[in-house]
Structure of TetR family transcriptional regulator:
Amino acid sequence: MTTRKSRTQRRQDLIEAARRAMIQHGTDTVLLNQVAEQAGLTSGAVLYHYPDLRDLLLEAHHAGMERFYELRVRRIAGISDPVRKLVVTIRSGLPTDAEDADVRLLCELGGAAGRNRVYAALLTTLYDRQVSMYQTILELGAAQGVFRLAAESQTIARNLVALEDAYGYRIIARHPTLDVAEAVELILSYARQVTGNPLDVPAEPAKAPRARRASA
Amino acid sequence: MTTRKSRTQRRQDLIEAARRAMIQHGTDTVLLNQVAEQAGLTSGAVLYHYPDLRDLLLEAHHAGMERFYELRVRRIAGISDPVRKLVVTIRSGLPTDAEDADVRLLCELGGAAGRNRVYAALLTTLYDRQVSMYQTILELGAAQGVFRLAAESQTIARNLVALEDAYGYRIIARHPTLDVAEAVELILSYARQVTGNPLDVPAEPAKAPRARRASA
DNA sequence: CCGTTTCTTGAATCGAAATTCAACAAGCTC
DNA sequence: GAGCTTGTTGAATTTCGATTCAAGAAACGG
């Protein structure tokens, strides 16, 4: 039936399938068969590659996180203006909408982190990396005299990431009056106060949006 | 074996048992037997009172949320000084530590909200109520001339609640360098900037801490 | 006390999903 | 293209938890 594939290729496929399955059915309610279905295989085949489903789920979460972070890094890679850089970073930290697959997965992870130390560690790492990212931007801007920081860069950076996270949850939970645009404004309100910069950057023309797997 | 109890009393017990069980095993991986065990009953008895386990879980989440909110309201009930009020409110929005039962349950809820509309609605309501709470405090302080608000009260209130939420998650996930005291400082940093008030309030002497059920 | 209602148990049943495994197919090497 | 390795299936088996239910114990009202 299904064409045979190389070990590494199939594992990659399975990780993607697991991501999709988890977003649809939940990190710890997803069934082996649901992952198999997403991959277009049978449960036996999945088990052949991952004798313990939990290993696969962990790898999938890891990959999802990595992808999310890498995407953000890539988005600001070419930008030199600190103001523009900061604004784009803020925008890239929020889900595109309530269906955003990457962020939904992260929310899932957040819920499980209270019970699962490995997931907790994963999220902690992501948080810290994002803080560093902001910190770099802030200090660069300060060095160039564009920002006049009203607190330590770490404090600001931590708060910025915290705001992103929290609004991510709200958006995923479909808050009726708190959409993406509103969340951006709320975070910008803080960022303006604390950088002493109006942060006037026109909205980008909508480019290719981030992958949206949860087509349910 | 177990002593017989009145309908309402037993239902109350079951809600508490469900709370404990969910914190230990996860909102949507908790087993009927685990709830029964927490209640010191058999699965049959649980089913007698709640033919559908999901109803019980929902009530338990609802009760947990209500308790969390009510506790916060009660904490600031007697305080008239807006500065003190604001600071106490900020402190009461964070978990006492990584084991804090109430907040762990809320995090669970957050993770499930992406898939479960009812849970999402529950959290949205809680968020909005907390925003109102802050908004009242902020406007009262502004009216008294103690605060000089640097943005709309709703904007500030939304950001304050968002920060609390996010740091709650970090603390529950045991971030190694972001403990409760640090989180309070981070939020206060924002609150100071935006109220134009130094918010100098000595730490309360540790009173009876919030219930900590997750003794696992 | 006696009968009734309410609550609880424990064992039996049912169902769903995980796990195992023999057979088979598709590449790969020489 | 024969023989080996690797990947995949599908059905059988096992496991585990939910569900049902007959029976019994505790309160309660007269």
In short: The radius of gyration of chain B is 19 Å. Chain B has two domains: 7-56, 67-195.
